[in-house]
Amino acid sequence: MTEPMIALTGIGKSYQTRDGGSYQAIRHVDLAIAAGEFVSLVGPSGCGKSTLLNMMAGFLSPSHGSITVDGAPVQGGPPESIGYMFQKDTVLPWYSVRRNIGLGPRYRGVDRAEIGRRTERLLALGRLEKFADAYPHQLSGGMRRRLALMMSLATEPTILLLDEPFGALDTHTRTSLHAELVRIRGELGQTVVLVTHDLEEAVSLSDRVVVLSGPPSTVLLDERIDIPHPRDVYSVRENEAFGRHHRAIWHVLGEQFRLVESA
Amino acid sequence: MNERVRVLAWQVVVALAVLIPWEGLTRIPWFQEHTILDPFFISRPSLILLKLWDWTFGAQRGFLWPHLLATLWATLLGFVVGTSTGYVAGLWLSQNHFLNRVLSPYIVAVNSTPRIAFVPLITMMFGLGIVSKVVTSWFVVFFVVFFNAYKGGTSIERELLDFCRTLGGSARQVTMSVRVPTAMAWTFTALPNAVSFALIGVVIAEFVGSTTGIGYLMIVSLSTLNASEMFAALTALSAVGVALVFAIQWLERRLLHWAPEFRELGA
Description:
B: mainly alpha, MetI-like fold
C-alpha cells in the first residue's frame, strides 16, 4: 500500500470530568485508510466513533497520537480536501437549493462561472434540477439529505466523512440514498469514512468495516468485505458473502453491546 | 367561504351590539342621571364620528394631521432605531461570551425595572420635543428585540457552524451566512410586538411632556373633560396601531418566505 489517504496513529482521547477526574474515551486506535477506500466505523454507543470522525475533520484534537489527512497533519480546522455530512440537517433555510450548493465554492472564492457550472452539474447529480429555486422547507427529508451531500461535493472533496447521515430516515429513503451514494462515488471515486450504527448499511456499502470496543475504545475487528463493485444496494443483502460478513462482524459487535449493557 | 361569511356576519353583530346600546342608551335621560352612560363621560359614537370629521375635513379642517404625523413619525423612528440597535446588540452579545457575562446583570436590572418609570427622566433630559418620544420608544423596543436576537444568535447548532467550516467558511463568512440571518429571523418574530411597543413608548412620552401628537391630544381632552375628543383621539391611535402591525406583517411575509415556522410564531 502506498501513502494512506487518512492515517490515525496511536490516537487516544481523555476528557476532564466535573469532579476533577479524567475519563478515557479512546484508549488506542491505529487506522490507515487508502485512497478510494470506503471504510465504516461501527461500535456500541459512546465508543468514540463520531469522535474519531470529528478528529479527522479537525473539529477536535486527540489527547495522544497524530492524524494526517491527504499527507498533511490535521490541526486548527478542517482540511481542504474533506467534505462532511452530519446526521443533523445542515442546509441553510434562507438560501435556495441553488445558492446552498454554491455556498462552499463562494466561501472559497471560486469564480462565478465555475460556481455556475458546478452547481448545474450537482443539481443534476443529486436529481434536484426541478427544485433549483425552491427553498429547503419545500423539500422532503430525503431531498434535504441529498442537498446536504451536494453541498459537501461542491468543494470537490477527495474525502467524504459521513457521520450517521442516513440515521433519521425510513428504510426506503435510506436505501435509495445508499444507491445515490454508490452511484456518485462510482463517478467521482472519493475516499469515504462512514460512521453508522446500522451494520447492514456498513456491510452493504463498505470495503472495510472497523469495529470499535466500548470505552475506552480500541479496534476489535477490521473486516474486509469481499463483495465486488459496483454493488446493487437493493440486492446486495441477498448476497451469500453479505450474510457471512454480517455474521462475523455481529459476533464481535453483539458481544460489545452485551458488555456495555452489563457494565 | 361560507365559514368566512358567517364569521364576518358575527363580527358585525358584535360591533353593533356595542355601538347601538352606546348610541341609544346615552340618549335616555334616566341612564344619563343614574349611570355612567352619560355622553359627558363616554361620549357617543355619532359624536365621536362628528369630532373626527371636524378634525379632518370639517370645521377644524386638517387639525388632526400634524398630531397623527408626529406620533407616527416618532413611532417609526423609535421602531427603526430600537430594532436595529437591539438586533446588533443581541447578535453581538450572543457571540461574545465574556462581554455577555460582564453585562448580563446590568441587562437584567434594567430589564426588570418597568421601562415606563424612565419616561419622566427621559423627558427631563431631552425636553418636550420629538427626541424624548424617540428615546422612550427606542428604550422600550430595544429590549424586546435584543432578547430575541440574542436567543437566535445562541440557538445556532454547532453542527451547522462546523459544516460551514468544512465548506471552507472563515469566521467572518460563517457569521455573515449563518449567524446574521438566524438572528434576523428571530428578530423578525419580535417585530409585531416591537411596533406595538414603539407606539406605547411614544404615547406615554406624549402624556408626560409634549406639545404635539395623539397622546398630547388625549391629555388636553382630559384637562378639558371632553370625552368626544378623547375617543376621537383613541380611534385615530388605534387606526395607527393596526396600520403599523399590518405593514410589519406584510414585510415579514416577504422577508421570511423561506421560514414558514417563523412566520407562524410571529403572527
